[in-house]
User: Which sequence fits this backbone?
């Protein structure tokens, strides 16, 4: 095994440690939230580590060689977590939970919900520094957290298959149509949120009437 390959393997091991830390941290956050509010905002979440091939392709896309130092410098989503929640407001509640974390440090925030990408992609991204406690001392690994609603996740999953990974070959009309669908998804998210708020108000009123 070459020295470069060895360095990459050591680096990926550190990312695996970070992934385990992050997974535990998120599980604790969510259980605590549920206990405090009696409500779980998370529909589902998924933690994954990028494959070597995918890391290599991303570095190539950015114009860098496949080396451990380039992975550290230019790839911030070797470890990625996707948190899918029900309503728009849940996304920002979850972002706030991360803001108050004592262990994780937020390095970067990208609000693609307020400012969607030109493809129509919407999601809230956090790049967090996750501490790993090694015998040589604490090191901080970059990890990406994507927080989005079910509707955004539906759109992004299909876009990933239809367009995102094949940008060069995608005809303009397909891009345009995907963008239009992202707008429909946005409308739907707003309508669902309003509907949920209406139901909550209604429930509140019923409770009052009942207590009189
Ligand atoms: P994969 O296969 O999903 O992991 P940057 O260096 O920060 O300028 P970067 O790292 O691409 O650029 O960050 P960005 O743009 O915030 O996107 C990171 C991830 O968001 C992507 O990872 C995708 O998962 C998702 N994403 C961004 N844009 C789109 C889009 O238009 N459609 C879909 N479906 N997903 C998107 P990867 O590694 O590119 O892909």
Assistant:
């Amino acid at each position: 095994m070459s020295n470069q390959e060895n360095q990459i393997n050591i680096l990926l091991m550190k990312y695996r440690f970070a992934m385990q830390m992050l997974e535990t941290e998120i599980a604790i956050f969510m259980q605590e939230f549920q206990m405090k509010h009696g409500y779980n905002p998370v529909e589902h979440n998924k933690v994954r580590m990028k494959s070597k091939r995918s890391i290599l392709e991303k570095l190539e896309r950015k114009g860098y060689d496949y080396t451990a130092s380039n992975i550290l410098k230019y790839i911030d989503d070797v470890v990625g977590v996707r948190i899918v929640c029900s309503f728009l407001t849940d996304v920002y509640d979850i972002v706030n939970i991360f803001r108050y974390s004592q262990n994780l440090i937020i390095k970067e925030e990208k609000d693609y919900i307020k400012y969607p990408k030109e493809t129509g992609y919407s999601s809230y991204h956090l790049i967090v520094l996750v501490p790993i406690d090694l015998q040589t001392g604490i090191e901080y690994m970059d990890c990406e957290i994507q927080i989005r609603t079910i509707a955004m996740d539906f759109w992004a999953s299909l876009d990933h298959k239809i367009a995102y990974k094949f940008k060069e070959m995608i005809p303009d009309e397909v891009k345009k149509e995907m963008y239009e669908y992202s707008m429909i998804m946005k409308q739907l998210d707003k309508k669902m949120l309003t509907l949920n708020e209406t139901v909550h108000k209604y429930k509140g009123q019923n409770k009052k009437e009942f207590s009189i």
Remarks:
- The two ends are 77 Å apart (CA to CA).
- The domain at 3-206 is CATH 3.30.460.10 (Beta Polymerase; domain 2).
